Amino acid sequence: MSGRTRAAATILSILFWLAVWQLAYHAVSRDLLLASPTQTFNAVVRILGEPRTWRMIGRSLIRQFAALGTGVLLGIVCAALTSLSKIARAIISPALTAVRATPVASFIILALVWMSSASVPIFAASLMTLPIIWANLSQGVAGVDRNLLEMAAAYRFGRTKTLLHVIVPSIKGTFLAALSASIGLCWKAMIAAEVLGTPKEAVGTMLYNAKIYLNTDELFAWTAIIIIVSRLMEICFAKVIKAGGRGITY
Amino acid sequence: MIIFDNVSLSYDGKTVLKNFSWAVPEERLVVITGPSGSGKTTLLRIIAGLTIPTSGKISGTPHRVSYLFQEHRLIPRRTVLENLRLVSEKPDEWLERVGLADSVGLYPAELSGGMRQRAAIARALAFPAETLFLDEPFKELDDATAGVILDLLEEQVKVRERVILVTHDPEFAAKLAGTVARFAGPPLRLLDNADI
Question: Which of A61, A133, B55, B65 has a CA between 20 and 30 Å from the CA of residue B92?
Answer without folding.
Answer: B65
